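The protein record quoted in full:
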Amino acid sequence: MKKPVVSVEVITYNQEKFIIQALDSITMQKTNFPFEVVIGIDHSPDHTGEILKKYKNKNKNCTIRIIDREKNLGPTRNEYETLKLCKGKYVAFLEGDDYWIDDQKLQIQYDFLESHPEYSGVAHDVNDVTEDGKLIMKHSDHYNTHKKIVKFRRLEQGHLDFHTNSLFARNIFFDKGADFSIIYKASPITCDKLIPMFLVDRNPIYIMKEVMSCYRFCENRYHDTYLEHTMEMLEFSKKINGYPLKNHKIDYSIKISRSIVLCLYMRVFKPEKNTVYRYRQLWSYINPKIFFLCILQIFVVPITTLCRLIMRKVKSFC
């Protein structure tokens, strides 16, 4: 068996309804290079493991490796441990409830990185779909962004202009001497911002306009309320703020200030019961720099945004 050129990393938990569609979308790929699928099952209590083992026995299109955890690690630790086992020169990402829709996806992205050494990865646009696969909108429209090149500063400000299931990257994670453990230490559930950050620390990521995958949109996958999600992101932001990467030191102050202002907004306009103690926690994230940025977020940013909208309207009439 030839050494895989590309490793497709899949993490899954309680996704028996969707995992076959995810795997079919991988094994349908038409490539001129060998690739492997490395699947981390996070001690799933449903039939995901059994389904995958049967699928592996029937599959002849590529190598499938299954790691069935003896205990539940949580999304980020499972991602980290699975990623370390990927042997390919490149790595592509997919969660067990998402899927690809273009059988040339891997080949297209492989060809791009082979001819563009100045990029650490390449992503593409994604369709956001409902649980039963109905189209909601394109990811770029959902977040009102059509960026082509993502650099470190953009991610540092908290913006993620692509979905992880579209990412195809150089496999820097197989380096035994490098420490990527912050991927799971920063948060038990959030790593979709740190993995791209490790990549753009080296070189930018290019985003193609083509839609080649679908993200199954489930509201509050891990949280009961939006406030819980925001507080989790604040804790994550606090842990990675100041973290030294190979070429950059993460400054997440802008993202922290935005999250704090968002929490305050929800406190005033969308109050949730029995959450006063959570708002008191906000003080633990504030330092002089973040306080100043919060003031800017509350007063200056809305005014400048309004001015830009007015200018656009004026230009449209001219």
